[in-house]
Amino acid sequence: MSTLKNDRFLRALLKEPVDTTPIWVMRQAGRYLPEYRASRAKAGSFMDLCTNPDLACEVTMQPLERYDLDAAILFSDILTIPDAMGLGLYFAEGEGPRFERPVRSMAEIKKLGVPDPEQELRYVTDAVRTIRKELDGRVPLIGFSGSPWTLATYMVEGGSSKDFGKVKGMLYSDPKAMHMLLDKLAESVTSYLNAQIAAGAQAVMIFDTWGGTLTQQTYQDFSLAYMEKIVSGLTREADGRKVPVTLFTKGGAQWLEKMAMTGCDALGLDWTINLDEAKARVGDQVALQGNMDPCVLYSTPEVIRETVKGIIDRFGADSGHVFNLGHGIHQHIDPENVKVLVDAVHEFGQRG
């Protein structure tokens, strides 16, 4: 494997000194880029784009050609695992992901197998290998997965949900079934992320998109406990370097201390908490990633620069900050504004 020319992202995650604050953007390969839309049209559908390693590599690289980003993130979807479990994933126009066969009973959960990442999910590990080769040490590659709770919400609801009635109904009425489902998912996510690391991912991230819908207690029992289990089962060194793990619970600011105790290296933050407060609470234990509201990118270059400076000033001069948005970039954002963002982070984040 080639040596890394730019490793400030990995260094920041491990709280090592950096020359400037590193940045990558959640959903950086996405619909806001005209070249991405062209690749997706060529692929025929979103899943065709995800399952073709060469096209997945092409779109992963697109934002790096445009912007001075400090990391690439594997282009894939969080629902690859439930799809590999045979639930019949499809994307309805304007409705997002749906499953033909949702799981809603203990009997259905018992039938689910744990996918072999080098068999049913081979297209993902092939994409990681292809991207890693294409990157040639330019920047590190991030692998990722959805959290067990987040995957379970889609599997039980049958798709996206506004009130999570079915999945939370199962959690309260049949906790045993829910724990069995989450256990299988934790095992699946662990082997999936380890396969991505073996294929060349240099850092991994767990997206707990729907953890924030839970109560204090149910979050700990049904989301965090399973993420902790995954963290403890991950390969933490590859290519002679540590492989940092980031946990991100959207809407999870109230649980930062508990998240920091899982053994992860970094926590992703949404925009509902200020960085200085988060750092005061957990900064000695973990690095922090975030946390600009993506909607700032709808404004002017002046406002973007001012907001970036404010976020970096709040964190201070210590190492241990990776700049990111508080969630994925929106599809109608002007690509030029992303350049303003990336350049401002490197300018205002300079050390020494």
TrEMBL record:
Q: Does the keyword Cytoplasm apply?
A: yes
**Which residues make up the annotated site Transition state stabilizer?**
D77
Q: Which UniProt keywords apply?
A: Cytoplasm, Decarboxylase, Lyase, Porphyrin biosynthesis
Residue ranges of coiled coil: none
Predominant location = cytoplasm
Q: What is its EC number?
A: 4.1.1.37
**Cited CDD domains:** URO-D
Question: Record-annotated residues binding substrate?
Answer: R27, Q28, A29, G30, R31, D77, Y154, T209, H327
Gene Ontology CC annotations of this record = cytosol
Q: In which pathway does it act?
A: Porphyrin-containing compound metabolism; protoporphyrin-IX biosynthesis; coproporphyrinogen-III from 5-aminolevulinate: step 4/4
List the catalysed reactions: uroporphyrinogen III + 4 H(+) = coproporphyrinogen III + 4 CO2
Cited Gene3D superfamilies: 3.20.20.210
Q: Please provide an example of a Pfam family that matches this protein in its UniProt record.
A: URO-D
InterPro entries xrefs: UROD/MetE-like_sf (IPR038071), Uroporphyrinogen_deCO2ase_HemE (IPR006361), Uroporphyrinogen_deCOase (IPR000257)
What is the protein's known function? Catalyzes the decarboxylation of four acetate groups of uroporphyrinogen-III to yield coproporphyrinogen-III.
| NCBIfam families with a match to the protein in the record | hemE
What name does the UniProt record give this protein?
Uroporphyrinogen decarboxylase
> What organism does the record attribute this protein to?
uncultured Thiotrichaceae bacterium
